[in-house]
Design a protein that fits this description.
Length: about 200
Amino acid sequence: MSLVLGLTGGIASGKSTVSHWLAEYGYPIVDADVIARQVVAPGTIGLRQLATLFSPAILTADGALDRQKLGRIVFADRRQLAQLTAITGPLIRQEINRQLVALKHAKKELIVLDVPLLFEGHYQQNADLTMVVYVDGSTQLQRLMVRNHLDEVTAKQRIASQWPLIAKRQMADIVIDNNDSLAATKQQVVKFLTQYGLQK
């Protein structure tokens, strides 16, 4: 039996770091962000649908998706964000399900389902356990501004477009607190693996 861990967090919470560590331990990652890029790659139905909805102005000169232009549109308008999700959501879900089935068939001990919108998109239904990587609001804001070179207003807009981390914390089975050092965060990940008999 495979154990599916639904991993989530908020933007700039450290979820990707935790996912990277789990991958280093040899556990397969079903990464919704990677899949989200694949379903709107040049030549895909997904990209054609986005260009029709938001105009070809969201494409680069070589026909790829200009993520910054699209981001400025959807993060400023919840209705447009919902339209984006309506197009990409079913395509992402289909590929996630395909990968999960293949990994379960291969009898992988732990499968990490890495989804930023785990609860919002009801992907927790695909998981046996859920884990959230948590930071407090001020830390999240500062990290996002530094990481993405954003001003405070834009950074707050992006954070506000997601569920509050405190709400995800209340819903998760396991909370990884990433307010302290990376070493302290990693120690919590190792504790989880040990607790479930997964530490190699």
